[in-house]
Write a structure and sequence with these properties.
Layout: H1 3-13, H2 27-45, H3 51-63, E1 66-67, H4 68-74, H5 79-91, E2 95-99, E3 107-111, H6 113-134, H7 139-152
Antiparallel strand pairs: 1-3, 2-3
Helix pairs in contact: 2-6, 3-6, 4-5
Length: 153
């Protein structure tokens, strides 16, 4: 039996004491600490973009032109937040906006040539960020962790 299996058995065997509340044992607190660690690693490698800005560029690189609202949905951002992200990326020349040919109310977002070059340069750094974030875990633990997070999301 591996160390990971022993740890999982220990966690399963522990009974929660419903009379005590310890902040450090709460899922939200632990997720926030893990997120803070990840953001610090991100900033050390990609200091000139925020994670939401990177997410927008990466998704546009993946799918191509899309509506601003659809982009927000795909990267888990509300309409107001994605608008601010897109406005900042546009000001930096990384994305361009255009009106939909049929529905003029729809705003389309696409990478500029500069945006495409930037995201192509940043994707290897993003892989490094993921590796560093997951470095304390074994490969099996990392895979399990990502599956469990996806289940929660």
């Amino acid at each position: 039996m591996s160390g990971e299996d022993n740890l999982l058995r220990l966690v399963e065997a522990e009974e929660l004491d419903e009379n005590n509340y310890h902040l450090q044992d709460q899922v939200g607190f632990i997720l926030r600490k893990a997120h803070q660690r990840h953001v610090a690693i991100f900033a050390s490698h990609i200091g000139d973009l925020t994670p939401p800005q990177f997410a927008a560029l990466a998704k546009l690189y993946d799918i191509g032109e899309t509506s601003q609202n659809q982009l927000g949905t795909l990267i888990a951002m509300d309409a107001a937040t994605v608008k601010g992200v897109i406005d900042r990326l546009k000001a930096r020349g990384l994305v361009e906006l255009s009106k939909h040919e049929v529905d003029k109310r729809r705003l389309l977002v696409n990478l500029t040539a500069e945006g495409r070059e930037a995201i192509e340069r940043l994707i290897p750094l993003a892989r490094t960020i993921t590796e560093e974030t997951l470095a304390p875990l074994t490969a099996k633990e990392a895979a399990t962790f990502l599956q469990l997070l996806a289940k929660l999301a």
